[in-house]
Hints:
The chain is an alpha/beta fold. It is 40% helix and 19% strand. The radius of gyration is 19 Å and the shape is globular. This is Phosphonate transport system substrate-binding protein. It comes from Cognatiyoonia sediminum. Belongs to the phosphate/phosphite/phosphonate binding protein family.
Amino acid sequence: MKKTLALALVATTSLSSAAFAEGIDQFRIGILGGENAQDRMNSYACLQEYASEALGVETKLFAPADYNGVIQGLLGGTIDMAWLGASSYAATYLQDPEAVEPVLVKVNLDGSIGYHSIGFARVDSGVTSLDDMEGKVFGFGDPNSTSGYLIPSIEIPQYKDGITMESGDYFGEVKFTGGHEQTIVAVANGDIDGGVTWADGQGNWEDGYNSGALRKAVDAGLIDMNDLVEIWKSAVIPEGPVVLRQALPEEVKVTMTELVDGLYEADPDCAYGVAAGDTLGFQPVTHDTYISIVEARKAKIGG
Length: 303
C-alpha cells in the first residue's frame, strides 16, 4: 500500500524524479514539540518514506527541542514543511508573511477543525477547577504554543478576577515545562499541581479524547486518564495548519499537499501518528482561518 500511494501521487503530477531534483536536492519536514523527539520521529517515519518516494529525493525529519526551532527553520529555509499550531503559524507570519503558506488542516471525527486548551490536575490533588488552583503551581508548555500558552494566557484571566500569568499573584508559581508531554507528565507525577495541554475535546476522557497530546500520552503508556481530572477548557481554537515554504517549486508543493491530503484514505495508521490520534484526515485551509490568532498573538506577545 505504501509504494502504491507514493507512486500514484508521483503519477498524478506527471513529473519525473529528475524534474524534482532540478529544484530541490532534499526535502525537510519539521516536527513541532509535544512529545519526546524519538516518538515524534517515529510518528512521522511513514510520511518521510512516502515523501522520499513521491519527490524522488531524500526526505529528512527534524524535531527541534522547542517550537521556535521549527519556526526559525521555516523562516531560514532549513525546514520545508511542518504542521504548526495556530500561534506558531502566527509567529512565523508576523516575522515574514511570505515565508510559508498554509495548505491543509486536520479534520476531527465530527467534521470540525477546532480543538481546545484543556486545564487538568490529578484527581487526588483535590483540585476540581481553577478556583482550587490559588497559591498552587501551574504549568504552561511552550511560549509559542497556542493551547499551551497563548489562548490560556488570554482566557484564564477572564475566568476570575485576580488571575494573572505571573508567579505569586493568583498561582503560587507559573512554570514553562517545555512542551505538552512535559506538562502532562509533570502533573501526573505531582511535580506541578495543574497545567494545560491540547485535545479535540471529543470522545472519552479516559481515552485522552479522540486526538491531541493527552491521547498521545495515553497511547505511549505515560498516563492513566482516570488519575487526572479536567479543571478548565478553552473556547474552540482553530486547528493549526500544515504549511509549506513558499519558495519551494510549485510542483513540490502540489505533490506534498496531495500526499498529506490523501494520507488518511491511503494509510490510516500513518495518518493517526501524524495527526496525533483519530481524525478524518486533512482538508484545504487558507490564511483567513488564522487572522484572529495572528491578531491575538500580535496583541499578547508581539511578533
